[in-house]
Amino acid sequence: MDMKRDYYEDIEVFSSGTVLFWSIALFVFLFTLPLYLSSYNIYLFNIILVHVILAVGLNILVGYTGQISLGHAGFFAIGAYGTALLMTHLGLPFFVSIIAAGLIAAFFGFIIGLPALRLEGPYLAIATLGFGLTIMHIIGRWDIFGGRMGIQAPPLDIGIPQWGLSALLDSDVKMYYLILVIAIVMVIGARNMMKTRIGRAFVAIRDDDIAAEVMGVNLLTFKTLSFAVSAFYAGVAGGLFGFVLGFFDPFTFNLILSIIFLVMIVVGGLGSVLGAVMGASLITYLQYDLLKNVDEMPYLGDALVWFSRKFFTVIGLENFNSIMLGLIMLGIVIFEPLGMFGIWIRIKKYWKTWPF
Amino acid sequence: MIEQLIIEGLAIGACYGLFGVAVAIIYKTSDVINFGQGEMGMISTFVTYHILAQYGLPFWLAFVLTMVFAVLLGMFIEFFFMRPAKDPTVLGLIIITLGAEMLLMGLAGWKWGAEQKDFTFPLSVQKVHEPIPGLVLNEWSIGVFALTALIMVLLFLFFRYSNLGIAMRATQQNQNAAKIMGIKVERVFSFTWGLSSLIGAVAAMFFAARSVLDPNFMMEPFMRAFAAAVLGGLTSIPGVVVGGLLLGLIENFFGYAWPVWKPIVAFVVIIIILTIRPSGLFAKHYVKKV
What we know:
The complex is a heterodimer of chains A (about 350) and B (about 290). Chain A is mainly α and about 350 residues long. Helices cover about 70% and strands about 0% of the residues of chain A. In chain B, strand 1 (about 130) and strand 2 (about 135-140) form a beta hairpin. Chain B is globular and about 60 Å long. Chains A and B meet through helix 6, helix 11 and helix 14 of A and helix 4, helix 9 and helix 11 of B.
């Protein structure tokens, strides 16, 4: 249905006027959002946007390049700690710190990409998983990282306070605009990158790495590059996440978080930027809002509390979150392997070809 | 001192090896890495705890009941979660088993709460024996060594002589050919999961006796056991046990020298080994053909 007639049509950011119109409508909606929402919901939106950046980055690695990572919480942690420490100890301005932290994460991504040249499937999953846990333990044990107690994020000042150009973002709403702008830039950046030689090399590696190598794709360069780019996204997202939370400790970045990241892109749909955005939004909303307060929901909440009292324990009801997430993971692979993006494509096809 | 380090390392290593065998059995037959293995063992251990605390049955009866539960649990997961997935990718399989893990962890937390419980196990770490002068063994390690040896012998006999064991090996080598030869491949998978869940449950009880019992307690041992299995090579069962023993030794010596970094040794070892020998020390490496 989406027929491409020439190369320039293929590399357009907005493939048609309709897409452009709705994208602009979405941007307008997002930029005026604080007018209609309470401050808790803005906090929720901040987390969603941070996760969107991360999911888009993870999707470059998992969805487009076909590598598996269970260690993205590690890159996320590097970003969060890197940004906060560079700002606190070296007094660097925010933008320099966050990019430096992203580059440090990218360097670690490059290092992890090296074994990935020889590993595939489950072995790669376990190696990245080991990496994530190692980072968590190292951070938990070194005093400069605050140890197990965690550290406080410095005040978020996007100017250069030493030169008197201070621009302090002290509320969730101000932070929201910063994160929104960065998220939009990075999402569009990811979409564009997939239309360049680099992006097409990634897809070629996913489809068949040996064939890709024969075609002249240097596996060493592009596999490690994919890890590095993905880690950079995770690092930047982590840097922002630190400020959203305000206070974080190593256990924030545990294995479960890596699993949740992977779930986001699988639920959203692999190999599509839109899917990653949708998946990150849905899973974050479920995790941080709907399922967290499941016992306060009308009818269902009461029923669950009654059920827990009878067969389980009421105090353990908070684990309902994890049960639902598990069921979503099982359900999506069994019934809808293409994720939300697959559903979206099906709906679109249905409307385009309607009477048939 | 050094003998003690070796013995301790070998004991914990045997436990890793035993749990690694549970992972390897599934991987051998169906090429699935079961990330939910730890939580399957965890929930079986909780069932024992529940039977002991709630109904006051003797330990051996609780143990037998738990083994029945573990087998059924493994078969249940295979039947309801693995089987309905149509042509899943490697990532899809990983997501399914991780989903099962989250589900089981949530259920255990819902039922038994997050607080830590003491697991009464007949073999304690405190009670020590000295069979040969100079060699001090605690009851727990004796139990682990005896059980690992027993299970290894049984598995060897099972895979070598029983019809079902041969069917499992045939399924591993070529699923379609096995089907043509009249092997009910689905039933073999179901049995594999039951067997693996059983071995995992036994190992999990040993882990619980060493630490405490809470819904997260199997997370770290599972990673170690997995590292051990990868170290030995996931497709060779004796290799997995040797890998477990090796990892136990490395970890214990390293932990003695630098106690702070003990928790990460396993992961550093796993990354290094995988980089040098992608299929582990004792398994043959198959390179994909175009």
